Structure formats: structure tokens, C-alpha cells
Description:
Blueprint: H1 4-14, H2 17-26, E1 31-38, E2 41-48, H3 52-62, H4 67-71, E3 80-82, H5 83-86, H6 89-93, H7 96-102, E4 107-118, E5 121-130, H8 138-156, E6 178-181, E7 187-190, H9 195-198, E8 204-207, E9 210-213, H10 219-230, E10 237-243, E11 246-256, E12 262-269, H11 278-285, H12 289-299, H13 304-311, H14 315-329, H15 334-351, E13 363-367
Parallel strand pairs: 10-13
Antiparallel strand pairs: 1-2, 1-5, 3-4, 4-5, 6-7, 6-12, 8-9, 10-11, 11-12
Amino acid sequence: MANAGNEVARSAVEELQPTLAEVVAGRGGAAGAILARTPDGVEFRATAGLSQDAIEAYLSQWQRRDPWIAALRGPFAARVFRGEDLVGTRLLRASEFHSRWLAPNGLDHAIFAEIAEAGPTRDLLCVWRPTGSKSFSRSDARLVGAVAGMLGMLMRQSELAGGAAIAAELVAQSSVPIVLLRADGTIVWSNAAAASLWNGEGPLRRACGRLALRHTGHTARFAQSIASVAAPGGRPSMLGVQTEEGIVALRLQPLMLRSGGTMVALTGYLPGMGVPNAGTIAAALGLTRAQAEVAVLLCHGLETAAISARIGVSQHTLNGHLRDLYGRLRASNRVQAVVRVLGASVALTLLAPPGGVNNGTTEQHTAK
């Protein structure tokens, strides 16, 4: 590649060659590749199931005549494309690319997912199925998209340090929206679940590759929160956004770069995702079993009288549990407590550096 950073990325991907081979085999594929698409053409970062002759022929003769690659224009925004979604099967099979490169190499249907984007270079995961096989299903697309996200995170590990390394494992938690941001709110990477934050009635909006709160009155504070977390010595921050469907807890976690700079990992806990059980909450936040049970019921929206009846304690005893819970969470009210529980029990557990995070250093805000 043109610079040392790309060389590191290439090395990281080449080390994942066995993983690529497993993905190809697991999806019933005949071959797979990690492609780097640049303004000058296409490069192979890693391959599985492709002969050297097939690779050389593609690079020398067919990369600019590949109808799928030609149809992949603009950023994917974490989407996955099946070959037939890009080019009609009948049209593809009438092409020279099919008769002179795909068919001779025993290949047919394909699926593509964006791994990462860095300037004009876009890394793609591609899997081809053997001639005569069925096309890829929606479940195949979800899995390939998840693998592409994992590869993207692992490629970026060369730039991450300390607790940020655990971010490479986050894509497996598909129900938790995760976004990597620069200090100015620019999206560096996001998993598939993160689209729920800005699509439809999500609490955020995405414009020109940046994130902001959907309600403009809080946009400045949201941007300030990201910049504050990304600043030298920045600390984790919680932002609770009140929506019609309930409280959306957003956690901003600083991720240190080896260069000395910082990125921000934003995780969101959305209404309807399900409340973690008491054991998970207790372990994540250092609560007693009683406090964790009360926290779960708060997250389910129960009023204090209903909570008292559910756990079989008096109102006086429950008030004591709530007082201790709020103190432990550094929360001054019910809304703040729910934000802390929902956001921290999932996001904090996933993103905390080894040894955990001191809850006392976590800032928190609520926007309504």
C-alpha cells in the first residue's frame, strides 16, 4: 500500500485469512476475498478459494469489467448487497465477465459488504458461491454484514490502544447500537444495529457523515459532549434522551489511539431492546441483589407501589433501596437512574477497559 498505515491494515487482514476461509465455507461459498477499492482500481488484501491464476486474471483483465464492482457506487453505510440486487442475473450471465472469469473459476452468486472506508479507499468483503448454487439469503446477508463489521474493527485495532481493543468484539452484540466517532461527530464506523439510532423515529439524525440529536435544541450540547469525551483526559459520559417511546440512554466512551489522540465510542440502549436481568445489572454496576431487582423494575416502568408489592417489601424498605440505588448510581431521580442502568449495564460492560470503570467519574445528562 502507499503508506505505513495501510501496510498495517493489510497485515491485520492477512492474519485473518483462516477466518475468511471459515466464513466462505460456512455460507456455502466457493471463494471469498477482502478487496481494497481505490480510484486506481481494485487490490486483493486477502483471499480464500481463489487460485493465483484467477487473481492475476481478475487484476489484469477483469477488475474494470466486473459489473458488480461497477454498480457499487458511493458509501455503503454498513449495508450488504447481494449480486442480483446490483446486476440482474440474466444480464450478468450474458456478460463476458461471467463466461470468461466467473464460470471458468466455478463461481456464480456473490455478496458484498463494506468493511471500512478511509479517504478514497473502500475495503469490501466479497463471497462467491459455486456454479449452480442458490443465491444468498437475508440471513446470509446479516452474517456477512456482521463479519464485515468485525473485520473493520480488527483492521482498526492497529490504531487503538488500551481499553479500546475490546471494541473489536462488539460486533457480536448485534442488538446494541455502536458507533465510533471523531471529536467533531464524524462517523468512523458503525454496526448494523446503530442504524436504529438515526432511522425512523430514532433519537439521532445522520447528515454528511456526522451525528447530531434529532431535536436541534440539544444539538450543540450533544456536539459538546462528544468533544469533551474526546478531549485529552476525557471521561465517559451518559446522555439520556427522552422520546415518545421512552428513555434512550446514550453512552460516550473515550477510546485512546496509539497516536495519542482519542475517538469516541457511542453506544445506545433503545426502548424495546429488553431490560437486562438483575444478575447482569448487579455485576455490571456493583449493586446488591435487592438494588438490582429494584433497578430492573424501574426500567420496566413500574411505579413504587407496584415495585413494593412485586418484591414483597414495605414502602419504607423500598424507599431505602431506592435511596441506596440512586446513591450508587450517582442519580438524583428516577429518569437518571434508568438512564444509568440501561446504558451502563450493556454499554459499560462491553466498553470498559480491563478492570472496569469507576462509576464515580462518569458524567451524565438528560435531554428532554
